[in-house]
Amino acid sequence: MAVWGGAGWLLDRWLDIVVFFPVGIILGMAVAIYLVVKRFGALDPVPGKGAGTSPGGRRSRPRTQKGQR
């Protein structure tokens, strides 16, 4: 936030307008949230719903390569 907000503030001072500072702050927050999600991963799956099961609760058959049974 500080880097992009600072860049926006400098652009605002250089161009004598007041639009880049808020845009820089918002862009900085978006990049920070993206980096946190990328670093620590997505949310864990909901408890009780196992991965790899069909909606009926039975496991689906393993997939084989073409020509093999």
The largest sheet is: none
Rg (C-alpha, Å): 24 Å
Helix-strand category: mainly alpha
Order of helices and strands: HH
Specify the helix fraction band.
40-55%
Mean pLDDT, as a whole number?
79
N-to-C terminal Cα separation, in Å? 56 Å
Sum up the overall morphology in one term: elongated
Tell me the β content.
Answer: under 5%
Number of DSSP strand runs? 0
Which regions have little confidence, pLDDT < 50, spanning 5+ residues? none
Number of helices: 2
Commentary on this structure:
It contains two helices and no strands. Helices cover 51% and strands 0% of the residues. It has 69 residues and is mostly helical. It has a domain at 2-39.
Which properties best describe this structure?
mainly alpha, 0% strand, elongated
List the helices and strands and how they pair.
Blueprint: H1 2-15, H2 20-40
Short description:
The protein is mainly α. The protein has helices spanning 2-15, 20-40. The model has no long low-confidence stretch (mean pLDDT 79).
